[in-house]
Design brief:
The chain has 100 residues and is an alpha+beta fold. Helix content is 47%, strand content 26%. It is built from three helices and five strands, in the order βββαββαα. The strands form two sheets. A three-stranded antiparallel beta sheet has the order 3-2-4, with no helix packed on it. A two-stranded antiparallel ribbon has the order 1-5. Helix 2 packs across helix 3. It is globular, with a radius of gyration of 15 Å.
């Protein structure tokens, strides 16, 4: 999906607690990691306010990526940023645990 209007919160159960992983806004993709993994989504998406999503079928996204190098690079950058945020969150958790 692509967020066309509104905001979507990405949440996940971690250690029995629901955590906010991030918020998506207009123009951002949702669910694309599951497509590239060929697996179910790993988190929940919840509308933070009134939301309109555009459906992008998996085969269409793959075709767009293959035909458009700029889109492929943008997706790679997005995935890299997500990895860095995940590493930062892990580091924060490790730091908190070390202080206890």
């Amino acid at each position: 999906f692509m967020v066309h209007q509104g905001r979507v919160e990405i949440r996940k159960q971690i250690g029995g607690e629901e955590r906010l992983l991030g918020t998506l806004a207009k123009g951002e993709l949702l669910g694309h990691i599951a497509l590239f993994r060929n697996a179910p989504r790993s988190a929940s998406a919840i509308a933070a306010d009134a939301v309109t999503l555009m459906v992008i079928p998996a085969n269409r996204l793959e075709t767009l990526v293959r035909a458009n190098p700029a889109l492929a690079v943008a997706l790679i950058r997005d995935l890299a940023a997500m990895m860095l945020r995940a590493e930062d969150r892990l580091r924060e958790v490790e730091d908190r645990q070390a202080k206890q």
